[in-house]
Amino acid sequence: xxxxxxPVWIFAGxxxxxxMILVAIIVHGESLTFDEGDHIFAGFMMWHSGDYGLNxxxxxxxxxxxxxxxxxxxxxxxxLQQRMFKGxxxxxxxDFMERNDxxxxxxxxxxxxxxxLFAAGLSVAVFLIGSKLFGQSAGLLALLLVVxxxxxxxxxxxxxxxxxxxxxxxxxxxxxSLAWPLDSRCQPSTAGFCWLQCCWD
Length: 201
Fold this sequence. Notes:
Layout: H1 6-27, H2 36-49, H3 61-66, H4 85-100, H5 106-115, H6 117-134, H7 136-148, H8 150-156, H9 162-179, H10 186-200
């Protein structure tokens, strides 16, 4: 693949900025989904008390990144009732959000913006792998499609692991494609790092 030209990067960067603006607009139009409170409370408890036992079926990376905006807040934490972990995370997460977030959902907005960073990472990965395999025009077309793709937009602003997993899966494939002609020691290690993040996401 030839080195990407500056106008291509500018156009791609503009599309990714547009995607983040769309995510910020969509955030205000959506109420809390049934499983977001589960993920949010589990992520907060990882930071708060090092408890990874809530919502363990989903890897922690997205939850940890999304709940970073909560670290400086003084929040009410519901006492754990020693229920099964799925019910504990779901019910306590619901109470946690109802008690701490106001009617304007300021905390939810900030957490969703943080989770939206993975959508930007997915778009970058789509652009890079499309450009490498099929040329710059194809990479830009793929980026354009992913920015306006309804399923990606609908999930980009949610505190769930779907977009994060997709981002690191594609990043792993891209890094493996770079490492295929084994002419560099750092490329296989980069692919391994992306795969590790995918498993931890």
